[in-house]
Amino acid sequence: MYNPRRCPPNKGVKLPGLRPAAYAQAVSRTQAVSTVLETEHEITKHLESGERLLWTGAPHKGLLLRKSDAFQIPFSLMWGGFAIFWETTVLRSGGPLFFVLWGIPFVAIGLYLIFGRFWVDAKSRSVTAYALTDRRVLIVSGILSRSVKSLPLRTLSELTLEENRDGTGTITFGSANPLMMFGGGANWPGGRRYQTPGFESIVGASEVYRRIREAQKALDPKSG
């Protein structure tokens, strides 16, 4: 019988016979299964009558660096560094209150560009879910309010697969927006509205790409 005094709920319980590495792997697998179930539950709410779910997934969690960061990181460091230097100089020299207040917004923007945007991006991806059905692709996202982007498979004329060596990758639905290619990062304020929809940084990207193509051919055999 379970005795709360012998096994306090606030302390971790190690499974007997498992080494630390094996235990960590077991916890990781449990968390992965939990994430899959949560994603499927989130997607199921948006399925139409008779619609069949073929695949569900989610973007990479945590810090994610993109190609555009090669421009964005140096720019954010220059912006933030100058803003902080300006504000510090004004405060140390006892400058006018107007100059002190003038520099605060630029410092705030600089701190967001250097640190905050990565946190917002990671948070946004942590609540994003992807799905492929026999009719469309779905992207459910949003931190403060949930939004659902639905793209019918019949109208997806342009698919782009970018795959990494580890098998992760991004599938883009449509032409890339030039603003995103030249430093218009998705994790900058308002940047996601200009981002081309897609399944970003997913595991097994090539397999998902193949499934999308097969689902399109099933709808229109003459297309393939």
Summary keywords:
224 residues, alpha+beta, 4-stranded antiparallel β-sheet, 3-stranded antiparallel β-sheet, 5 helices, elongated
Strand order across the largest sheet? 1-2-3-4
The biggest sheet amounts to: 4 strands, antiparallel
First-to-last CA distance: 61 Å
Could you name the ranges where pLDDT drops below 50 across 5 or more consecutive residues? 6-15, 22-34
Which percent bin holds the helix content? 40-55%
Treating each run of at least 4 consecutive H or I residues as one helix, how many helices?
5
Shape: elongated
Can you offer a commentary on this structure?
The protein has 224 residues and is an alpha+beta fold. It has a domain at 69-120. It has five helices and seven strands, in the order αβααβββββαβα. It has helices at residues 20-44, 69-93, 97-126, 178-181, 205-219, and strands at 53-57, 129-133, 136-141, 147-152, 159-163, 169-173, 198-202. The strands form two sheets. It has a four-stranded antiparallel β-sheet with strand order 1-2-3-4, sandwiched between helices. A three-stranded antiparallel β-sheet has the order 5-6-7, with helices on one face. Helix 2 runs antiparallel to helix 3.
